[in-house]
Structure formats: structure tokens, C-alpha cells
């Protein structure tokens, strides 16, 4: 059950997945299932939408984190070229440019992650 509501005379248990509420009289008696009311449906819809949005944000954060990780690895490779004694001046220039681009994309990815 996803939720329970008590009144003076009954206990109502709700199952958001099945959209069924089970009403149990407090004085004893059989539990009676019934379809959700419009209000209960709206509450379940709101919870489902909130959970979907949370999962989408988390998926975006994880994807951005992976992108940042990959870019940091590329920056390290560019730094190896810059530090290499066998690299040409043109190689070093290209590696510095690649490192600056990676830095800019990492900054952009972190900004996007914060928006998600």
C-alpha cells in the first residue's frame, strides 16, 4: 500500500499502481476494495509525475557526470602532448586549444547539470 488514511469509522489504504483503495471498517467487518476517487487519482498522478521528473533529472546528472569524466581524460591526454619532449610546436598548440575547448565544455556541462 502506498498510503493509509484514517477516519472515525474506517481505514482506507491506497494502492497507487492499481488505483484501488481498500476500505476497512474500524468496528470490524470485511475490507471492501473500490476504484480511486478523482482526488486520489490526481494525488497518484502528481506523485508519479514528480517521480518521473526526479528520475529524468538524475539520468541527466549521471550523463553529464560521465561526459565531464571523459573530457577530463581528454584534457590529461592533451597535457601529455604539451609535456612531451617529442611533440612539435604545432602539436603543442593544438593540444592547448583542445584543452581550452575541453575546459569550456566541462564548464557548460556543469552549468547544464545544475539546471537539471
Task: Explain this structure.
With 116 residues, the chain is of the alpha+beta class. It folds into two domains: 3-36, no CATH class; 55-115. Helix content is 63%, strand content 17%. The chain contains two helices and four strands, in the order E-E-E-E-H-H. The protein starts with a strand and ends with a helix. The relative contact order is 0.10.
Provide the fold topology.
Elements: E1 3-6, E2 10-15, E3 20-25, E4 32-35, H1 38-83, H2 89-115
Antiparallel strand pairs: 1-2, 2-3, 3-4
Label this structure with key terms.
116 residues, alpha+beta, 2 domains, 2 helices
Number of strands: 4
For the terminal residues, how far apart are their CA atoms? 31 Å
Structural class: alpha+beta
What Rg do the Cα atoms give?
A: 28 Å
Whole-number count of domains = 2
Which percent range fits the helix content?
55-70%
Strands ordered across the widest β-sheet: 1-2-3-4
Main sheet? 4 strands, antiparallel
Shape: rod-shaped
Q: What is the N-to-C succession of helices and strands?
A: EEEEHH
- Fraction of residues in β-strands: 15-25%
Overall mean pLDDT stands at: 92
Number of H- or I-type helical stretches:
2
Q: Runs with pLDDT <50, length 5+?
A: none
Amino acid at each position: 500500500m502506498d498510503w493509509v488514511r484514517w477516519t472515525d469509522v474506517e481505514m482506507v489504504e491506497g494502492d497507487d499502481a492499481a488505483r484501488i483503495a481498500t476500505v476497512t471498517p474500524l468496528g470490524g467487518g470485511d475490507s471492501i476494495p473500490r476504484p480511486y476517487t478523482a482526488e486520489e487519482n490526481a494525488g497518484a498522478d502528481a506523485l508519479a509525475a514528480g517521480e518521473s521528473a526526479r528520475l529524468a533529472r538524475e539520468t541527466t546528472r549521471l550523463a553529464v557526470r560521465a561526459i565531464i569524466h571523459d573530457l577530463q581524460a581528454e584534457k590529461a591526454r592533451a597535457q601529455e602532448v604539451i609535456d612531451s619532449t617529442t611533440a612539435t610546436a604545432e602539436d603543442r598548440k593544438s593540444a592547448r586549444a583542445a584543452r581550452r575547448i575541453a575546459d569550456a565544455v566541462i564548464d557548460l556541462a556543469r552549468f547544464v547539470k545544475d539546471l537539471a
